């Protein structure tokens, strides 16, 4: 286990190491605890990485292969608990299956989709990484934040081109790889996820890394210091994202990459 002050080898655009602060483990709304198993003992839950009203995000262990996995757990048909309303797991799986063919760093490989009695789950390969909240203390520059989010923005564009969504509905779904790229660690679109949800998710990720504030409130101060495409993206997307597209976000991030003096 890393000490609170150990540096995590995240490599951003300027190769700056980020200090990993102590972040308490997430308490699962469902009451699931680390060490318990899921899917008839196939997967062991190791640590809860976050939650939304109808889903939880876990780092887990495949007890058959011995490999770590990411688990997006959903309340299943007929199952309703404190975590939120029941979810039609068949619909979630139908909206997820197209991702199985994706080969992109921003979306890890999906290895299983499980419909168990207690919940459904989308299972992915685990990528060594940190949460957005863990790297926020090491505050990236606007340029480095743009470089970190850019691969995810292009993955969202590809999803929208085939009428799919990645469902970036909460920052807890996202993590930052050791290479410094933001990726969708916990896929599985809920029924209400749409394109605007993805666009807003890109803005929230950018705001969190560039300003330390996922609400986007820091964008005004960022823009005042140095007007830039990054501040413009945050301003236009975090409020909802309905009036801009993922292609627009990706285009501006490409501009930042081409002219890092911003």
Automatic annotation (TrEMBL):
Gene3D superfamilies: Phosphorylase Kinase, domain 1 (3.30.200.20), Transferase(Phosphotransferase) domain 1 (1.10.510.10). This is Aminoglycoside phosphotransferase domain-containing protein. It comes from Rhodococcus oryzae. The lineage of its organism: Bacteria, Bacillati, Actinomycetota, Actinomycetes, Mycobacteriales.
């Amino acid at each position: 286990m890393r000490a609170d002050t150990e540096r995590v080898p995240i490599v951003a655009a300027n190769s700056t190491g980020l200090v990993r602060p102590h972040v308490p483990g997430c308490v699962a709304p469902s009451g699931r605890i680390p060490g318990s198993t899921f899917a008839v003992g196939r997967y062991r839950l190791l640590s809860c990485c976050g939650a939304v009203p109808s889903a939880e995000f876990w780092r887990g262990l495949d007890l058959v292969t011995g490999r770590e996995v990411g688990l997006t757990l959903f309340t299943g048909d007929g199952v309703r608990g404190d975590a939120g309303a029941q979810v039609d797991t068949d619909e979630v799986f139908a909206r997820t299956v197209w991702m199985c063919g994706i080969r992109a760093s921003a979306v890890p490989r999906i290895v299983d989709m499980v419909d168990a009695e207690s919940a459904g789950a989308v299972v992915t390969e685990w990528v060594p990484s940190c949460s957005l909240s863990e790297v926020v203390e090491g505050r990236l520059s606007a340029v480095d934040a743009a470089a970190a989010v850019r691969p995810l923005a292009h993955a969202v564009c590809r999803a929208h081109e085939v009428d799919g969504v990645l469902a970036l509905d909460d920052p807890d779904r996202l993590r930052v790889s050791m290479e410094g790229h933001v990726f969708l660690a916990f896929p599985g679109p809920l029924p209400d996820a749409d394109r605007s949800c993805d666009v807003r998710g890109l803005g929230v990720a950018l705001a969190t890394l560039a300003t330390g504030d996922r609400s986007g409130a820091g964008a005004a101060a960022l823009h005042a210091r140095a007007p830039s495409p990054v501040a413009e993206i945050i301003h236009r997307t975090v409020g909802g994202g309905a009036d801009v597209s993922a292609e627009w976000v990706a285009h501006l991030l490409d501009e930042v990459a081409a002219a890092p003096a911003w």
